[in-house]
Design brief:
The protein has about 550 residues and is an alpha/beta fold. About 45% of the residues lie in helices and about 15% in strands. The chain folds into four domains: about 15-250, Rossmann fold (3-Layer(aba) Sandwich), CATH 3.40.50; about 255-315, no CATH class; about 320-400, no CATH class; about 420-555, 3-Layer(aba) Sandwich (Trna Endonuclease, Chain: A, domain 1), CATH 3.40.1350. The strands form four sheets. The protein has a five-stranded parallel beta sheet, sandwiched between helices. Strands 11-12-13-14-15 form a five-stranded mixed beta sheet.
Length: about 550
């Protein structure tokens, strides 16, 4: 087998074909787009699900350039029939990506829009430059935008103006492709200049897509559908294909057949179950879909080692701000729902697609909507009650579960750093077991747990609470005696105290005391204090600590 390079981060269709990358053929997307005859088509899918590559493919297919025809040799669209091929190479195409507008300030974000628009103007300059049908005033305006010297109004109406110029030169209406339209909106919401950004994007869209007689059709992609009232005001020609729609479902992400074919090509058939557990689980309409970015990265990692570990590749590229917002704003009921999801259970929530970023904080239900449409939850089933659609949802796979867990852990660490925990530390060093258990239980109530209340969860929780104890060294699961005590605290000088903590998980609230006693017996039987005594410590405290869900009990071994 000849190893083909995998297109990691390759979102230009020409590059993918000419450099002979592994290619999953999605060209029948073009056929369906022409069949549906939508004037403005909005596709919403999670990040890294192939939107940008598909937009690039559309550009090379429709654009007036004979050289592009060879890029599609052997693809499925070439066998679809002349009624589709007659569209090939027949239109000026305006292609604009807004992803570079993810910037910390309004000024810098607007500069990046100017840059992106200016580059597209420059790309079409040869067509406009030689055509005498463009008036001198329009030519000056064109060059002003091209040279990044235009006003805010120039750039707000730039796409419509460019389509006017291209129609004057070619006699053909333009196809407009706008990729990642909601990136500047999400960024502006979290960065604090949402109102300015939404006004700009609304003007850009209204002029280009609503009242533009030089528009053949448009395709817009993003992660979320933003409500008509905020962006697509009065845009009656808008067709929306979200993750709930059956149409076009197989063209974003990899289908199970495409994944199996890829694994066979690279001799990785035995890895199918790993790939399924980590990267499958999405459902667009009624179609099962794998995360393409993660599958490609995983297969690439197996090039030198077919047993390479699966890793959370999507978590390194996708903005996790929405998950973080959910965790930070969670009340008690939402915390329980997050815990249930991480355990592998489901939740049911009302789903509606007409949302704005401003809605995110208005109700917890809106936040669940954002999580569903951005790929952090998957559909199990749906039902309709009256006018409301309810969606039963779960975490899609192990990769996304990793994102939830790590978001929770980081949130817990940050909260712990801000807490005043000296009463906890005092209670431990003074042997006040009641106060110690009370403080730990209170903090368990505030946090979000996972691992189904396994011992490893409580171990991480307690170690996190103790990390800022000050002058004491915190050792976790270090060798000592005949085994490993869960946690050891020790003063740097042997004249100070040392503390041994052994953790147990009870099966009921009534079982807490028995588990504390069991932990204390283990400390003695395994001689966990032996190493500390060899070091010279004489003042050694021994705690048996038991947990049951959000409850804690601690017992201190009597001094001998």
């Amino acid at each position: 087998m000849t190893w083909k390079p995998l297109p990691i981060g390759v979102d230009n269709f020409e590059t993918l074909i000419t450099k002979d990358y592994y290619f999953v053929d999605k060209t029948l997307f073009i056929r369906d787009l022409l069949d549906m005859k939508g004037e403005v088509n909005l596709f919403t899918r999670p990040r890294r699900f192939g939107k940008t590559l598909n937009m690039s493919m559309l550009r090379y297919f429709f654009e007036m350039d004979e050289d592009n025809r060879g890029l599609f040799a052997g693809t499925k669209i070439m066998s679809a029939g002349e009624e589709y091929l007659k569209w090939m190479g027949q239109f000026p195409v305006i292609s604009l990506s807004l992803k570079s507008m993810k910037q910390p300030t309004w000024e810098l974000s607007f500069e990046m829009l100017k840059q992106a628009v200016g580059e597209e103007y420059e790309r079409h300059w040869k067509t406009v430059e030689a055509d005498r049908r463009i008036s001198e005033a329009k030519r000056e305006r064109y060059l002003r935008i091209c040279d990044l010297k235009g006003t805010e109004a120039d750039y707000a109406y730039a796409l419509k103006f460019l389509s006017e110029c291209l129609y004057a030169c070619t006699g053909r209406k333009s196809i407009i492709l706008i990729d990642e339209y909601d990136v500047p909106l999400e960024n502006a919401y979290f960065a604090g200049f949402y109102d300015q950004m939404i006004a700009l994007i609304r003007s850009l869209f209204e002029s280009a897509l609503k009242t533009n007689e030089n528009l053949e059709f448009a395709v817009v992609t993003g992660c979320l559908r933003i409500s008509r009232e905020s962006i697509f005001t009065g845009l009656n020609n808008l067709k929306i294909m979200s993750v709930t729609a059956d149409a076009y479902a197989e063209y974003f992400g990899f289908t199970p057949d495409e994944v199996e074919e890829m694994l066979r090509f690279y001799g990785l058939e035995k890895n199918l179950e790993t790939v399924r557990q980590w990267y499958d689980g999405y459902q667009f309409g009624s179609t099962e879909v794998y995360n393409p970015w993660s599958v490609i990265n995983y297969v690439d990692s197996c090039r030198t080692n077919k047993e390479a570990f699966a890793r959370p590749y999507w978590s390194n590229t996708s903005s996790n701000s929405i998950v973080r917002t959910l965790v930070e704003k969670a009340d008690l009921s939402v915390k329980q729902e997050i815990e249930a999801l991480i355990e592998g259970k489901t939740i049911t929530k009302p789903i509606h697609e007409d949302i704005t970023y401003e809605d995110m904080d208005s109700t917890q239900d809106n936040l669940w909507n954002f999580l569903f449409f951005t790929g952090y939850l998957k559909k199990i089933q749906e039902r309709q009650e009256g006018e409301t659609i309810y969606m039963e949802m779960a975490i899609p796979n192990r990769e996304v579960r990793y994102i939830y867990k790590n978001t929770v852990l980081r949130w817990f660490e940050e909260r712990t750093d801000k807490k005043e925990l000296s009463p906890l530390y005092d209670s431990i060093l003074n042997g006040d077991t009641e106060k110690m258990a009370e403080i730990l239980s209170e903090n368990l109530m505030e946090t979000i747990s996972f691992y189904d209340y396994q011992e490893s969860y409580y171990h991480g929780f307690l170690a996190g609470m103790l990390k800022n104890i000050g002058n004491y060294i915190v050792l976790s699961n270090r060798e000592s005696g005949n085994g490993r005590p869960d946690i050891i605290l020790k003063y740097p000088s042997v004249r100070g105290k040392a503390v041994i903590m052994e953790i147990k998980v009870a099966e009921s609230y009534q079982d807490l005391e028995r588990k504390c006693d069991e932990a204390l017996r283990q400390i003695e039987e395994q001689r966990y204090d032996e190493e500390l005594r060899r070091e010279g410590y004489r003042n050694i405290m021994k705690y048996g600590i038991a947990f049951y869900r959000k409850e804690c009990m601690a017992k201190l071994a009597p001094e001998i």
